[in-house]
Specification:
Number of domains of chain A: 1
CATH architecture of chain A: Alpha Horseshoe
Structural class of chain B: mainly beta
Largest sheet of chain A: 2 strands, antiparallel
Strand content of chain B: over 45%
Shape of chain B: globular
Number of helices of chain A: 18
Strand content of chain A: under 5%
Number of strands of chain B: 52
Helix content of chain B: under 10%
Radius of gyration of chain B: 33 Å
Number of strands of chain A: 7
Largest interface: A-B, 67 and 56 residues
Number of helices of chain B: 10
Strand order of the largest sheet of chain A: 2-4
Oligomer: heterodimer
Amino acid sequence: MKRFVTYILIGLAVLSVSACEDFLEKGPKLSQSTDLVLSSYDGLNKATLGAYARLGNVGWYGGERVLESEMRSGNGIKHIDHNSNRYMTQMNWNYLPEATSGMWATGYVTIAACNNVIDNLEGKESSEVSAQDLNNLKAECLFLRALCHFDIVTLFALPYTYVKNNGNSLKDNQKLGIPYVYHTDSEARPAREPVLTVYENIVNDLLEAEKIIDPSYVRSGVADAKAVVTLPVIQAFLSRVYLYMGEWQKSADYATKVINSGKYTLYKPEEYTKVWTGNTGGSEVIFENFIDLGNLSNEDCSYMTYPEGAYGDCICSPELYNLYEDGDVRKDLYRQDSNETEGLWWTLKYEGKGTGTPDASNTVILRLSEMYLNRAEAIVRGATVAGTDAVKDLNLLMKNRNASQYNAVGVDAIQTERRKELAWEGHYFFDLARWNKGVTRGSCYGMDVKYQNIPFPDYKWALPIPKRELNVNENLVQNDGYKE
Amino acid sequence: MKKVKLFFTAVLVLIASSAWAQSQVSGVVTDASTGEPLTGAAVMVKGTRTGTSATSDGTYSLRVSNPQEAVLVFSFYGFKTVEVPVSGRSRIDVAMEVDATTLDDVIIVAYGTVRREAATGSVSAVKGETLATTPATSVDKMLSGKMAGVQLSSYSGQPGSTTTIRIRGTSSINAGNEPLWVVDGIPIIADDNRNYSNYGVGGGSNTAFLNPNDIESITVLKDAAAASIYGSRAANGVILVTTKSGKAGQAKFSAHAKYGLQQMANDNHYRPLTGEELITYWRDAARNAGANPDDPASTYYVPYSLLENGSHNWYQDMTRLGKLQEYEINASGGNDRATYYSSLSYHRNDGVFPSQSYSRFSARVNADYKLTRNLTSGARVNIAYDDSKSGNLMGSSYYINPAFAMFMLLPWTPVKDEDGNFFKPSENSGNNPLANAAYDEYLDKEYRFNGTMFLEWKPIKHLTLKTTNSAETAFVDSRAYSNPLADPDGESWLDTYFTKEIRLTTSNTVTYANVFGDHNVRVLAGQEAMTDTYEYVGVDSPHVDPAIPYPTTATQAEDQGAYSFSEYSLLSFFGVADYNFANKYFVSASVRADGSSLFGAANKWGVFWSVSGSWNVTNENFMAGTRDWLSLLKVRASYGVNGNNNISPYRSYGVYGVTQYNTANGMLPSSPDNQQLSWEKNKTWNAGIDFGFFDDRLTGNLDVYSRLTDDMLLSKQVPYTTGFGSNFMNIGSLRNRGVELTLDGTILRNRDWLWTAGFNIALNRTKVLDLAGSEYLTVADSRRGNDTPVRIVEGMSMYNFYVREYAGVNPSNGEGLFVTEDGTLTSDRTKGRYIYAGSPEPKFSGGFNTNLTWKGLTLSAFFDYVYGNKVMTGNWYITDGEDVLAQNSQSSALNYWKKPGDTGVLPKPIAGGSNVWYAGYSTRFVEDGSYLRIKDITLAYTLPEKILKPIKLSGAKVYLSALNAYTFHHVNTFDPELGPIGYAYGGNHPMVKSFIGGIEITF
C-alpha cells in the first residue's frame, strides 16, 4: 500500500513539474513583449511608427523645443496679466541641474526606440518584405536618432561653431557634447563625446539614411504625409545640420536639393495667414509633428500662445513685433487679447485646427522658407550655387511676404529675416548660439534686471546635465559653471 | 524418546507458568462529562514501554506483567491524566475528566492543527468564543488589539471599508504589506475590487464578505517558523481563519439579532466654526489685511449683516444617527457519519452621512461526510452579496464629500433656496453635498462565491492523504452617476464598471504521523497550484439623459470604453517535518518551493524554509518540585526565510505598449525587460518563552524577533541613455525588530465569580538599511496619487515626517515664523528649512481587556492603545489655507494672535491670501498621535437554565455593547487613527461609535 502511494506521488510530481513551465508562463496580453515586437516586420514597422509618438510631447515639439527657444532668445516675453508662472525658468535662464530641460529624457528614450528597430532588422527579409522595405524603416529610425541627438546636443552643449573655433582655449568640459547612443544596453553608462564627434555622428546617420531610403518612400496608413520621414526631410535636415556646423557649401547644396525637388512651394502672401490651421502640412512644410484631434495629448505651443481661455504665458516681444513693416503678411500673424492690451501680441502659428479653441496644432519642424534662408546665409558666408545668389533667394521670400526687397544682402539682413520668418518655430535661440551672439532685450519685462541681457560666451548657453543622470551614470561630467 | 518428551513438557510448563504470571486487563475509556467513548486515549503501564490506545468504541486491552504492582496511566489530549493501580483486576473502566486548561490549546496552524504545547513558532490564536464577545461588523475588525504585534488601522469609518493590517511592522516599500488570508486552508482573494464605496482608503484587507459569526477561530502566524510554509506569500504573516463545522448530535439551532445606533466618533469635539465665530475670524482677517470690514467698497467687506438670515451648522445637517442591524440564523448537527453547519445572515448599516449604506447577505454551508471507514469528504461554501451605496464620494478631497465640504461651506449659506431647490454654494465650487446625497449615486455591488471541497483518505493507520480544491469568484458592479440636479454645471455623467476576479486553487497533501514510544513524528508533503485572473470592462458615458441614466442614452461619440486584464499563477511543492521526544523537546522544519509567473524567467522558482525548536522545561523530571507554582515553562527559537510576491503582474516583461501617431497604431517600449526580477526575501528569527503560574492562573508569553527584508523590490533610477528612466529591481533592505508580551490572568475564580484580565504590548522598530543609492524616497499617497510629507530615509525608521521647521508666532506682529537653513527666523514659509519631525511608527502599541462574570452576568471591556507616534492631518489644506475669506475653518483656528505679546497662539489670519506662513506642510501640523481607545464595553446576561427549560430553549443571552465608546487623544481632528503613514489629507470618513443591543438564542 505504501509503495502504491509512493508511486502515485512520484507520478503526480513528475506530471506537475513537466506541466509547470507552461503553467507559469503568463505573459501580458494587452501589450506585447519586446522580443515579440522586434521579431517580425510588422512589429518593427509599428515600433518605427511608435518612435515618432513623442515628437508631440510638451518637452519636445509639443512645446519646449519651440517655446524654450523663443523665451530664451528675446522673441518671447511674459506679462503679469497672463502669467501662470510657466516658462519663467526659460525666460530667466536660471536652469538648475535638478530642474533642467526634459529633452534629455525624451530624446534618449526615443533613441532607444530607434535603436531597437535598427538592431533587429537583419534577416527579416521574406517573400513579402524586401530589403528596401527594411531599409526604409532603417532610414526613418536613423533620421529620428539623428534628430534626437541634434535636439539634445544643441541644448546641453556649447554651440559647434564656438567649440570648433575656440577649441584650444576651452576647458575640457566646455568641449563636451552628449553620449551618442547606438545600441540599447541596460548596463551601458556612456560618457559624453566631444561636440565635434556628436555632429559627425549625426551627419553620418543622416547620410546613411539618405543613401538607403527609397526616394519615393512615404509611410502608408498615415493621415499626414508631411509628418513622416521622406528623402527631402533627410536632405532638408542635413542642410540645417551643416549650417549649424558652418559647412556652408554642403548646407547650400542640400538646401538646393530640397528646393529643386519641386515638391514644395513657398506660401503666397494671400495664403500665409491661413496655412497654420490645417490638419496636415501646407505646401511649404517638409516635416512636421502631427497632432491628432481625436487623440489629444497635452500640447503647450497652443496653450501658451493663446491669450483667451488658456494660459497665454508666451507673448511676442516688441523688439520682434516691431521688426515687421506694415503690410508684411507676417505682421498679420499676431493677435491681441480681448482687452486689446497695448503692446501685447500673440503669434497665430498655433491657433489649433480650426476648432476655435487651443486644442491642438501641428508644429512645423522643417519648411521651404528655411531652405532659402539656409542657402542665402551659406552663400553670404562663401558658398556658391549656380543660378542663384543670396539677394535672389531672400527677395523671393520677401516677395511672398509682401515685404521690401533687398538690393544687397549681408549677415545682418540674413539674421533679421531668419528671425522674422522662423519666429515661434524654435529657431532663434539656436541661431543666436551658432552665431555666437548674445541675447539683448528691450526691457526686463518685469523680471529681475540681471536676466535682461545674456552675453555670449557664457556658461549658460549649455544647459546643466540633469543631476539624476549624473547620479546614475558615473561616466558623465557636468557642464562648466554648474554645481556637480 | 520419553525423556525428550518429558523435557519439552517441562519447558512448556515453565513457559506457560511464566505466562500465567501475566494478566490481561481491559476496559472502556469514556468522557466523564458525556459518557462517550474516547477513541485513541493512550493507556500505558507506568514505568514501561507497554501500552495501547482505545479503539473507536473506547475499549482497550493489554497485558500487564505484574498485575499486583502495576499502575496504568490513562492520558488523552484535552483530558486530565489519570493513574489507576491495577491491583490484580482484569477490568478497569475509566471516565476521564476534561482538562479545561489544555483543551483550548489546540490551535490551527498551516496544513493542520497543533497543540499549543507543541508549537515551536510564534502564533497568536483567538477562539470563536473570544471573538463572539465583540459584535464586530467584519472579520478583520475582530482582531484589533487582540494580539500582540498585530496592528490594525482604518483610514475610514465608512460602513464596509477595509482595514490595514500590519503584522510586526511594515516590511516592504513597493510590494504589499497586507498579510495572506487563508480561509479553511485556501488562500483567498482579500483585495478590494470595489471602485467607489471604499474610495480614498485603498488597499487593506477586504474580508467583508465573511460573516463574523461563522468564524470558529483565527490564528495569526507571525514568525518564519509558523508562516514560511506559505513560502513566497508569507512575508507579511498569515491569518488563518477556520469556519465552524457541525458536531454529531441533535440538531442545534441558534438565532440572533442585534440592533444599534451609530454616531461620529469625535471625542475632542472637532467642528467647523459657527456663524458668529467665523464672522469674527473674518473681520479680524480683513483688519489684518489693512481693510475696513464695514466698508462696502472694500475687497474684504465682512459686515455682521451676513448673519441676518441666520446661520446653521453644516456638520449637524450633514450627519445623522447611523443604524446598524443584523439578523442571523444557523443550524448545526449531524450523526456519526455526517455533520453540517449552515447559516444565513443579513447585515445592514446605514452610515452617519446621509444616503450611505452597506448591506450584506451571506449564506454558508459547511458539511462533512464520512463516506467509508477511512474516507471523508467535506465542503465549505460561502455565498455573499454586499451592496455599498452612497450619494457622496466619501474619502475624496472633492467638494461633494461632506467630511471635506463641512469645512468649506459657510454657516450662513442656506441648504436650499426659497423655491426649495438645493442651493449651489460658490464657496464649495457650486457643490452641495446634501444635493449629491439626494441625487447622485456611488455604489458597488459585490458578489462573492467561495467553494471548497476536500477529500480525505486514510489508506492505512497513521497516513492521511487529503486533496482540497477551491473556486473563488469575486464580481463587482460599480456605478457612479452625477445627476444634473446636483452638478454645479447642471450636467450629467455616468461611469459603469464590471470587475471580475476568479481564483482556482488545488492543494494536495499527504501526512504521516505516528508515535513510537516517546518519539512523536509527523511528516507532511504537499503540492499546490493556483491561478488568478482579473478583468474589468467599463464605460464612461458623459451627458446621459437624466430620465434614463444608463449608458444607452449617452452619445456614441462621447462614450469611452475601458478594459483591463491580468493573470498570474503559482505552483508549489512543500514539506514539513515535526518531531518531539517525550513532549519535552520539539523540533520542526519546513521547506517550500514556489514557482510564480510574476517573476523573471531567470528567477521563477524560489525556495523558502524554516527550522525551529522548543523545549518544554516543565516536563523535565527535575522540575517536579516547582510544578505547584510553575505550571508551564517553555522556550522556543526559530529561523526562516520567506518571500513577498505581492507585486502586479508582468513587471518582469520588457513590453511594448500601443501608441498612436499620425492616426496610425504604433508601438513604443513601455517597460524594460527584467529577467532577474524575483521575490523580496524576509529572513526572520524569533525567540520566545511561554509561561504559566499557579495552575495557569497567570499565563503569558514573551517574544523577541528580527525580520530582515532583503532583495527589496524598488524602482531604481537608471540613466535615460538605457531607454528608460527607472527599472524595478531586487535591491535594498530594511529590518523590523521588536518585543511582544502577552499576559492573561484569572484574578478571581469561585462558584459565582470569575474575573479575568489580559494585556498585550508590542514594540517594533523599523530601520531602512539600504535604499540602493537613493537618499530618500517620498511616499506618494497611494490613495490619491500625490506626494505626502512622509519620506523613507536610509538609516531611519520606515516612515518619517520631513517638513519645514515652524517656530511659532512672532509675538510683536502675529506672523508665523520659520527657521531658515542658517538658523535665523523668517516669516517667509518658503525659506523655512526641512527637518525631521518624527515618525508615525508608534513606540509601542497593544491592548488590554477585562472580563467579570457573576453567575450569568458578564461585564467585559476591551481597550487598545498606541503610544509615541506622530501624525499629521491635512486639515491645513481645508482650514488654514491661504484664502481666508473663502471658506469656513476648524474650531481650533480661533486661538490666533490678537495683540502684541500673545504667545502660544496660531499666526494671525490675513484676508487676501498673502499669508504664506499658513499653508504648506510644517512642524506646526505634526501632532502626537498617541491614543487610548475604549474599543468595546459589553454587558451580557446569560439566562439560567431554570428559566430556559420551561420554554424549551437550550441557551439565551442578551447583551448591550458600546463600540469605540471613547478615545483619549490630542489630535486636532475627529479621530487619531490615520493609517501606517500617519498622514491623512482632508476628507477621510471619520470613525464612528456604535451602541448595540442584541439577543442570541439556541434551541
